[in-house]
Amino acid sequence: MAAVMSTDQRREDLEILAKKKFNVRIQSISYLAEDILAFEFVDPDGANLLPFTAGAHIDVHLPSGAIRQYSLCNDPTETHRYVVAVLREVKSRGGSAALHDEVRPGTELTISQPRNHFALSKSASRHVLLAGGIGVTPMMSMVAELTRRGEPFHLYYCTRSPIRTAFLPQVMTLVEKGMATVAHDNGNPENGLVLDEVLTHYTPGNQLYYCGPAGFLDAVEAAAAHWPDEAKHCERFAVAPTDLNAAEPEAQTGFDIKLASTGETYHVEPGRTIVDVLFDNGVDIDVSCEEGYCGTCMTRYLAGHPEHRDTVLDAEDRQEFVMVCCARSKSESEPLVLDI
Ligand code: FES
């Protein structure tokens, strides 16, 4: 992902990742489409929430202890609430099913501060938003922001059918203005958006944002292969295949980690993760995906040579942070010193 945002903004967002959490109350739950509900979170005491930018997401800590990431879909100028839209996944690992079945208006949950790895460019001549299914959620906050800025954009939105299309009334208003295109594929991707046509021409200054199921993202990446990396922004809530994260444990080497606060050093064996070893030694790190794509476990390091295996951090972030659920070390002799 090549996020285009100012260094200061990026630093600020990264600092926010200092694992701060707070409680919110579910103010309302509303039906958006078949199997899709919107959850409105507010401060239990009625205070304003922390500001967020279009494209941001939050970690939601579920009653089971699981942590899931959801994009904020409301207007970023709203300070009194966060809204997320949640699709009940057929193969839910407890996240979407728990939200659909177990929480009610009035339930209090813990969430993280918003963070944004999918921010809008501030210097685009035109924004192209591509959403597959529930991947439309960050796009709705982007649409609100771009409308306010008066910047040109077009939203392409592909879903299975009208009854499974969240935000359909709002998007149809954009369609009438020539600012959106909606396609329904009825389960056959060949009937959906013709991505090769949408993405054929890259015009300098255009910025592309895409979010949706893994197959949709892979198709967009193939169709946009000729777009420059700095013009492409992807929000992926599933692991992307890489040579490194496909490596078998036998191909890994062990390495040492050191805690800056205590000076304790621990060995991470092949096949084990930094998070595993920290947990064994009484250091609890919040994790969610455990595959390097959600950002929950991001930790600052102070020395060493990490081998990054995540799909969240860009080159600059990697000078300072590691995702400890999946990162390893390039050095067997020098410890990776973590700011813990
Ligand atoms: S737990 Fe998701 S990136 Fe580490």
UniProtKB/TrEMBL annotation:
<dbReference type="InterPro" id="IPR036010">
    <property type="entry name" value="2Fe-2S_ferredoxin-like_sf"/>
</dbReference>
<dbReference type="InterPro" id="IPR017938">
    <property type="entry name" value="Riboflavin_synthase-like_b-brl"/>
</dbReference>
<dbReference type="Pfam" id="PF00111">
    <property type="entry name" value="Fer2"/>
</dbReference>
<dbReference type="InterPro" id="IPR001041">
    <property type="entry name" value="2Fe-2S_ferredoxin-type"/>
</dbReference>
<feature type="domain" description="FAD-binding FR-type">
    <location>
        <begin position="19"/>
        <end position="121"/>
    </location>
</feature>
<dbReference type="InterPro" id="IPR017927">
    <property type="entry name" value="FAD-bd_FR_type"/>
</dbReference>
<keyword id="KW-0560">Oxidoreductase</keyword>
<dbReference type="Pfam" id="PF22290">
    <property type="entry name" value="DmmA-like_N"/>
</dbReference>
<protein>
    <submittedName>
        <fullName>PDR/VanB family oxidoreductase</fullName>
    </submittedName>
</protein>
<keyword id="KW-0411">Iron-sulfur</keyword>
<keyword id="KW-0479">Metal-binding</keyword>
<feature type="domain" description="2Fe-2S ferredoxin-type">
    <location>
        <begin position="255"/>
        <end position="340"/>
    </location>
</feature>
<dbReference type="InterPro" id="IPR054582">
    <property type="entry name" value="DmmA-like_N"/>
</dbReference>
<dbReference type="InterPro" id="IPR050415">
    <property type="entry name" value="MRET"/>
</dbReference>
<keyword id="KW-0288">FMN</keyword>
<dbReference type="InterPro" id="IPR039261">
    <property type="entry name" value="FNR_nucleotide-bd"/>
</dbReference>
<dbReference type="InterPro" id="IPR006058">
    <property type="entry name" value="2Fe2S_fd_BS"/>
</dbReference>
<keyword id="KW-0001">2Fe-2S</keyword>
<keyword id="KW-0285">Flavoprotein</keyword>
<dbReference type="InterPro" id="IPR012675">
    <property type="entry name" value="Beta-grasp_dom_sf"/>
</dbReference>
<keyword id="KW-0408">Iron</keyword>
